[in-house]
Amino acid sequence: MTSEVRTDFWVHALLRTVQTHGGMAYVVRRGDDNAGAVLIKITKLDGTARLLVPARNSEGERIYLDLTGKNVGPDEKSIDDYLTTRSKQDQDVWIVEIEDRLDRNFIVEHVD
Question: Which of 17, 21, 11, 23 is nearest to 96 (CA)?
């Protein structure tokens, strides 16, 4: 049995990692402290962005899926529209926005 880190701790660690590496990160929406999903918007400050959402791979490990160009984006408006809809559907969801001109995601989980 694996234990998951509380969502609020995970988000705090992500914010610190981003800031340590010269990026900026903000909690746009705070969800459930214990088990809310964390959606990550990465903006390059040029009007384009990416959207990463959590998922599980076939081995049950947490990964992130890049929805950019598949379901949303790459323009910020379509990503923001998706995030607004998702937050209305899931009261527990967190939204974190990372501003980084180099388009880094700063997470340790695999991104597909």
Answer: 11
Tens digit of pLDDT at every position of the chain (112 positions):
345 789 999 999 999 999 999 999 999 999 999 989 999 999 998 988 999 999 999 998 989 999 988 778 788 899 999 999 999 999 999 999 999 999 999 998 888 8
| The pair of three-digit structure tokens given for residue 109, joined into one six-digit string | 């989980």
Global confidence as pTM = 0.90
- Neighbour tally for 112: CB within 10 Å: 10
**For 26-112, which CATH class?**
alpha beta
From residue 95, alpha-carbon distances to 59, 71, 78 in Å are 26, 17, 15
